[in-house]
Design goal:
Distance between the termini: 41 Å
Strand content: 15-25%
Shape: globular
Helix content: 25-40%
Radius of gyration: 20 Å
Order of helices and strands: HEEHEHEHHHHHEEEEEH
């Protein structure tokens, strides 16, 4: 019988073998701890909604947008999402932008994503006269360009597969790690994605009622995991972005105390079991991080995002 630790290592490694692409990154420095096909352009399903949420939060913080203002579910949000409507939202329903962000990030609701994009697109600059949803998608692509996400193209706000014969949205594991680092440099996003449940409120026909959301990220609370987003379509397979945090490292040099935050980012695309494979990558990531930190946390441009 093999020693237990060898068996454990083999299990952890097996968990990530089915993914088409993956990356593990130190959030603090951008150091790539491990990558496999990390620059391969792939469909990313509902991981798209992270970019949508960041456009909304940036607009709120930089342009004075009010996330408590109400948006109305447009008919196009129902007709363009392929009948996938787990929250049962209807055209004419009213929700706050904050609740729409929760619905996008926790429940991964596509109708909520189009509703949020439609509303934002009417408030964001629109020099080329795009329709509201298309304008928001253009701002998502502008954010990607700003962050150096060269392998990324957003074509809709939700990440659903486009019909055969049409252009396909795409990104890479490395690009999504860049987006996640950006998201965690801002206040707000981490609170949304760390919630396991949330009640939002919908106003319909003059009456208001609550909807209970469960986070699709089943790994929350395991091994320090506190975010970020899941995705799945037939073309994209299982996809997930995870962040895992550990207690900051505190060292002292004379009278000076240094505190080093410890957080890793894991992105997995084209998997078959996002929870098993994602957790295996997080656990391996912390093992790699420990060895890297013990050697002084070297980070060069050539091995960093």
């Amino acid at each position: 019988m093999r020693p237990f630790y060898l068996l454990l290592v083999s299990v952890l490694m097996a968990g990530a073998l089915h993914a088409t692409s993956s990356i593990i990154v130190d959030n603090q420095t951008g150091r790539i701890l491990e990558g496999a096909g990390a620059n391969q352009k792939l469909p990313i399903a509902s991981l798209t909604k992270l970019a949508l949420a960041m456009v909304a939060l940036d607009w709120s913080q930089l342009k004075g947008g009010n996330l408590e203002q109400t948006a109305v579910v447009p008919e196009v949000a129902i007709t363009t999402t392929g009948g996938i409507n787990p929250l049962g939202l209807q055209a004419g329903d009213e929700l706050t932008l904050r609740d729409l962000i929760f619905a996008c990030l926790l429940a991964s609701d596509n109708v909520a994503a189009v509703t949020l994009a439609d509303h934002l697109g009417r408030a964001l600059p629109n020099a080329t006269g795009l329709d509201p949803t298309g304008n928001t998608v253009a701002h998502m692509n502008a954010l990607a360009r700003q962050l150096g996400m060269r392998g990324t193209l957003f074509l809709n706000p939700h990440g659903l597969d486009t019909p055969d014969g049409q252009a396909r949205p795409r990104s890479t594991a490395a690009d999504l790690a860049r987006l996640t680092r950006y998201a965690y440099s801002k206040s707000g996003l981490s609170f949304y994605v760390s919630q396991s449940t949330r009640e939002i409120h919908v106003r319909r026909g003059g009456a208001s009622f609550g909807l209970h959301l469960n986070n699709t990220n089943k790994l929350l609370g395991t091994d320090g995991i506190d975010g970020v987003k899941t995705g799945r379509t037939s073309r994209a397979g299982d996809c997930i972005i995870l962040t895992s945090e550990r207690t900051p490292e505190v060292t002292r040099q004379g009278d000076t105390v240094f505190t080093t935050p410890r957080r890793i980012i894991v992105v997995l695309l084209g998997g078959t079991n996002r929870e098993q494979e994602g957790l295996a990558l997080v656990q391996r990531g912390w093992a790699i991080y420990g060895a890297w930190a013990a050697k002084g946390r070297e980070a060069k441009a050539s091995n960093s995002l």
